[in-house]
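Technical appendix A lists one of the benchmark inputs used to test multi-chain prediction within the project. The record comprises two sequence entries:
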Amino acid sequence: MRSPLRLALRSLSLHTKLMLALVILVALVAAISAYVVVEHSRERRLVELDERATRIADLFSRSLAQPLWNVDRGAIDSQLAALAPNPEVAQFTVTAVGYGIVSNVKGDQRVDPDDRVVRVRAIEYDPPGDAPREKIGEIRVVLTRAVAREGISSARRAILAMTALVVAALYAATFLLLKKMVRSPINRLEEMVDRISDGDLDARCAVESGDELGRLATRVNAMADRLRVSTECLRESERKYRSIVENSLEGIFLLDRSGRLNEANPAMAELLGYGAATDLITAGISDPGKGPFSPMQIGALFDILSVQGEIAGLELQLNRLDGNPIWVQLNGRGLVGDDGRPRCLEGLLTDVTARRHALENLRGHRDQLELEVSERRRTEGELLASRERLQQLSAHLEAIREEERKLIAMEIHDELGQLLTALKMDVSLLKMQLVADSPAMHKAEEMRELVEKTIKIVRNVVSHLRPAALNFGLASALEWLAEDFSRHTEIVCHFHREGVEPHLADARATAIFRIVQESLTNVARHANASRVDVTLANGKAGIELIVSDNGRGFDMAAARAGYSYGLQGMAERARLIDAELHIESDPDSGSVVRLCVQDATSA
Amino acid sequence: MNRREALRACAHVGLLCTTNFAFASRQPPRVVFLNPGEAVERGTGQQWQLVSRFMTVAAKTFDIQLEVLYAERDHLLMLRQAEEVARRTDAPDYVVIVNEKMAARQMLETLARSPAKVLLIHNDLTPAQRREIGNERQQIPNWIGTVTANAARGGYRLMEYLCQRLGKRAAKVIGITGDPNTPVSLERAAGVDALLSQVPNARTCQLVFGDWSYADSDQKARVLLARYPDANVLWAANDSMALGALSGVEASHAHVLVGGMGALPEALTRVIDGGLAAMVAGDYFIGAWAMVLLYDYHHGRDFAASGGVCQKLDFLSVIHRDNVAQYGEVVFLRGHTLDFGLYSKTMHPHPGPYDFSLRHILNATAKDS
């Protein structure tokens, strides 16, 4: 029941709805007002009737006192008769005390007992003087509500008639006003909107007022303006994008779930070997099996879409119209339908057949390269092993050389030194036998000098081969080296020792000594320094040896590039004793050679 | 009226006056009585017919031409009648008027234009009226006198009799008097009060004013008897009211003595049958007494010398069960034979004021019978 009514209401015009609402509202208000007014009027009339009855009774109770006292029935009757014609009067009864009814006046109306308003008042005579008031009778006033009810009903009719008249007048006036002020403008507005919706974007509404309808017309006009602009933009945009799609080198298509191609661009058609996009689309429609995608592929594509929402870089093999297979790369995204599942696939197809072939070639090359790399690695391993062995060999050779030097120095010192010393003693003995200042003497002197020189040379050779001080510990050797350096060069060299004397294996002490020796040699040769400091520190962390000078320094990179065998030798020696060698130098700021030996006791 | 008519009227009046004076002593005097009552009894009692009747008897005795004009209880008609009399070219010698409904003042003023002498009877002017128009023979010279019954004495005598009847019982009196605007109703009540003030334990329960009617009095009696259950005397100011009060008393089954003023035949009948205890009689002779005075006046014996121009005559008598039979017979059965000449100072010269006591005519009639 409610639905047809709602439909009927919905199909009504605005004017009718407004009028209907107004009628309902006004009728409601009018009905309530009328009801209130009628009720108020009824209440007022009944209250007035009650009050009137009371007033009449009170009036009679006073005015009848003298006539009743005087038993002046004429006066009583005339008083009662004066009010009796009142249509509301049903009965006036005057009774005297002990006697009964003195006067009784009845109205014209027959009174229903329920409709009566009865007031009874005592009539008291107030005698002159101080005598008390004396009740001499009663007045009984009976009024009927019938007249009031008639008045109420006629008032009700009048109020209802007036209300109906006002409602009708209001309705008519509002109808005309609404028709002129709302319905007609709306009709014109509707007509214009219809024209605009039919495509006539030049149609404009006449703005007739400044009210809501006028503003609506203005807005409709503005909307039409914007619509026209946006339509033009849309067309331009469509043209642009259509051009992009048409001219795209990639195949663009729209595929629905059933496998039908809804859209395809020329590149797509060309990709698949069709003459035009329409041929591709119609081919799919006329024979669903002949579409570019097989049903299995379609199922797989939509499964991916269901899971991921998009397809990125999926490569597929498709068949061209001429039956040749091609590889394509598909990128696309799904258009979700009302059921939340992908309804269509918007995709881009790129022909990757050539790329695929190139990739396959690359894979072949890669495999070959991998073979070569593995061969090279094997060779590198062998090289490393070889170098290891070389290093071991080098260390061994160094050890042997140092040992040989040591042996040679001892041999020379012990054997040759003894001989030369004996020779010198012999020469000295010879001289004592020769005449002073004789040629033999001179010869002997020259011989002694030669022997002295030879002894010095021997000592130098021995020291050079292996300083004797090295046999008394590294510190003594370094101290000797510093003094020797100062003596042979004009560069002041100081040795400093910090900590206790380190106990090092002979090979390590020799290697360290040789590194310091090489460093001092470099200083003497290249640094142009005036002072060199050699510091041996033996701490908890290990042994640290520092050789620093105040010379001109050198460029490390240049030094390395220049294949400095001195530096390389230092590094090699350090490596052999598992020490770290750091050389720091900047031009014009001297140089520092720092050698750190981690574990002093292990070697 | 134009000048010619006025002159003619004056001539007529002058001629008539001359004629009247010339034949005054020989021609029987003419009297017009403006009777306020009804020509035929219609419910307000026979009072005024009786007044006219006994006036007529007296006129016959004195050889006076009496003309009675009935106003039918309509004082406006009475005023018109007075106007008519005053306009008469052949004016009467005397006009007798009544201050019915306070109309006497206007009538006196109207009749002042007439040559006729005016005698006011039954109801005197009120003091207020007298203040306005003065007294007899003053501002209105042709108003020669006033004759009224001494109503107070009537009331006094009635109550005196009723108290006698009560014996030792204390009198508790209800009075129903007439219209408060009519002086006589107050005078009658005053007489009653005068007597009661002299009787120990006597008390007036209530005095009420009535409209002189039977029904009103009946109603009043019923209500007042209910209001004062111990009342034992009830008096009313005229016949009708006395009969009405009696009706009320009978309806209330009260043991109350009922008396009244005025002794009309109907009331006398109830006196005879014991319903009414007493009635005060004689009011209706006032016209006859007026005729006596006018007769004497006309014959040169001005009543002003015998009691004054304003005579309040004490002639009212109580009629009770003992004398009612005689009174009824004399007054009503043989009323036309009454000899009012007994009272005339012209016919029976005697000094002093007039004595209109009824016993004279009652006795005379009794002797005749």
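The first strand of chain B starts at residue 30 and ends at 35. Residues 75 and 103 of chain B are 7 Å apart (CA to CA). Comparable benchmark entries are summarised in Table A2.
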